[in-house]
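Model: You mentioned two targets. I'll fold them one after the other.
Researcher: Yes, keep them separate.
Model: Target one:
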Amino acid sequence: MFFNDPQVQELLSRLRKPAEIQEYLDSIPYPSGERNRSPLNVVREATAHCLDGGLFAAAALRYLGYSARVVDLQPDAGMDDDHVLAIYQIEDGIGCLAKSNYPGLRARQPVYRSLRELAMSYFEAFFNVNNQRTLRYYTTVLDLERRYGLDWTWDDAKVDEIEKDIKKLRRFPLLKPGMAQRLDMVDPFTVKAFTVGVNWEGVFRPVQTDFAPDVHRT
């Protein structure tokens, strides 16, 4: 249903390499709200948040001949949002595509030798509205087609199911014990660089924190 849709076919015919898929994701707005969209509705509505965009990227990568696979980057509970990456591999290099409200959390070139190395490339740009560095884990790979068939490409309810399943994936710590307690707060120059174009209505609010968008406009 997704790959046979005329609007989808027209779009995918123009996305001939991973970088062009990322360009499309960058061109559409990041919405506020928690509604999940299938790749089909991402195309029809021309909007996507992190999970929506990651699944659309996985579907578009499949169209190019890659496997439809995602990995999730995760904080400790209550600190921040998780972040879905659509991964692909060229020879020995792993890369990914991603939709994010924050510019530093988008795509990575296929030059990383392991999933851990790829995940660590996001560390400096992964912080919350309190300027806390929040990336702690990455998950095992989720092969979407093997687990769900292709229903997730057009069915929003299946995307809701995937969101729940991602939280149950085995995860691997990125920091050794004690490292998190020694982390500095994110400095104002880094905050400014990594919040260009942010939709402040769509950012995550940490537990027991008053939302203050200006904290990132230093």
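Model: Target two:
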Amino acid sequence: MTEKTDFPYLHGFNLTEQERLRKQSRFTEHTVYKDINLSSVKNLLEVGCGVGAQSEILLRRFPDLKLTGIDRSEKQLEAARESLDQIAYAKDRFTLMEMDATDMEFNENQFDGAFLCWVLEHIPNPSKVLSEVRRVLSPGSPVYITEVLNSSFFLEPYSPNVWKYWMAFNDYQYDMKGDPFVGAKLGNLLLQQGFRDIKVETKTWHLDNRRPGKRKEYIDFWHELLLSAEEQLVSNNYVDQETVDKARAELKQVARDPNAVFYYSFIQAKAKVI
């Protein structure tokens, strides 16, 4: 989404958030891309490319494709151009455009693949986006969608202020016409828009005493993700600063707990245009 829209982006648009997005994409790369194969795609559409964090990975992993990224935020696109321009393997392989994903300025059958990652959760009308994606893809083109399922989050030991903050986090996103549970709905959304060969898989991060080092990494990662929405939630009166401060302290305590458990599942869908 864009700073110009009536539906503010949950995490904001400052430089700290832009760097967090790049860090997040690298941190989650192994899980997100484990089952993504775009090796046959030559002309990829990335919807909601933001600061180019996923674009960088796509261009590296699939060296034969050219990427067209669209986003509603010119500020994010400027950051993406600056970042990608510094990468040798991205040279002459990407085009970035400010565009509304519900009303794309592309011809039919213009692309032979599409990629969406952590995007539909922020968009008021995901069905319209997927309708446009199908229109601009040629027959047989694959589309990969990775999305949140925020109801799956679990943290042990019990941390009451983290849960209070998490409920405010999701309430704010929902009130801004986003959908923090859209991942579970991807199968229905793709069927409704006429996609075929739809596969929906659950990807899970479940960290406990079996991998204590990795567990701390993910709790610290989640800590940073949650608190990236602090300014939006406090300024819009969804949560008070005392709750934020207590949630921050609880997250630090959980990261040090010898019996901590972190669990979160997200959803990845693959489909084709027929």
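Researcher: Noted. Anything on target two?
Model: The first strand starts at residue 43 and ends at 47.
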